[in-house]
Amino acid sequence: MKAAQSGHDPRDLKRWRQYLADERAEAATYRDLARRRSGEERDILLALADAEGRHEAHWLKLLGDEAGRPVRPSVRNRLLGLLARRFGSVFVLALAQRAEGRSPYAADPTATSAMAADEQIHEEVVRALATRGRNRLSGNFRAAVFGANDGLVSNLALIMGIGATGVSTGLILVSGLFGLLAGALSMGAGEYVSVRSQRELLSATRPTQVTLTASKELDIAANELVLVYRARGMTPEAATHRAEERMGLAACDCDPSFSLQPDTDPSEDAHEQVGTGLGAAASSFCFFASGAVIPVLPYLVGLTGLAAVVTACVLVGLALLATGAVVGLLSGASPLRLALRQLAIGLGAAAATYLLGMLFGTTAL
Hints:
Blueprint (H helix, E strand, L loop, with lengths): L1 H5 L3 H26 L3 H25 L11 H12 L3 H12 L11 H25 L2 H25 L4 H37 L4 H5 L10 H7 L4 H11 L9 H5 L7 H7 L2 H16 L4 H4 L4 H27 L3 H30 L1
Helix pairs in contact: 2-3, 2-4, 3-6, 4-5, 5-6, 7-8, 7-14, 7-16, 7-17, 8-14, 10-11, 16-17
């Protein structure tokens, strides 16, 4: 009766109440995330919470006396709030990024165009904040995720291929264990060499401060110092001006003593994204081994034949779904799509080696 007296469609009232609940939940999520951060990130998250508060006020105004009892936020927003209160990690920001990108305001005439634009901007803001967290994880985390995935796929493929030849269960088990050990050692060593080499390349590209000490002895007419700055990417005019500053022929807007002993390493962020050699190697070894042991488990507990093969495939399939979903969450993509892609690739590789094993076994016989 009240809905009819207010002149609003009951369906509109229900939708607005849900919007109101979700805006309140999103604002609370951003405030919970802000409590775990400091400085600029904290200020940005609080500003996002304030923006959601403005949206909340819009729905309150539309509802008026029809706001009624608060309804529960959507399952997605309740999950986000729980994760933000418990963890406050980059996973929450990645989920929030996807939530902001699915805002219904653009297609709802009762939402203002400013609110729809806000949600689009919020997605980009959260994407940038999530990117900071992804960058901090991208070194050792990359080695961990891909180490686990490689262990799952390669050892399942090895076991399936060998098993299809008709050899004994004991030989399959031994092959799986040695495949685990060899692969983990190879992955660990490869990651260490890869990361160390990348860090050394980053260090080699860092400009030195030799220009400060050598500039006093340079031939002013020839002035090779200009070539240094042009090689670093400056235009000829900017390089000439910079060289004149260094040689005392023009006013310098810099502090030479600071340039000689910089407080921070310009390549520090890049090094952080790459990770450390030992950290990447340890992560790769451990996660490859943890992935590679899964297809061996059925044989370790005594299963044989088809039961062992099916159990191994099911266990590896579940693990592939999990690793794919994690990568999807962190990348801001669909967790389900990446999980299914990971599953298809992994089981596809295992099926191919199984068929090749059958062919090899038949030929050998």
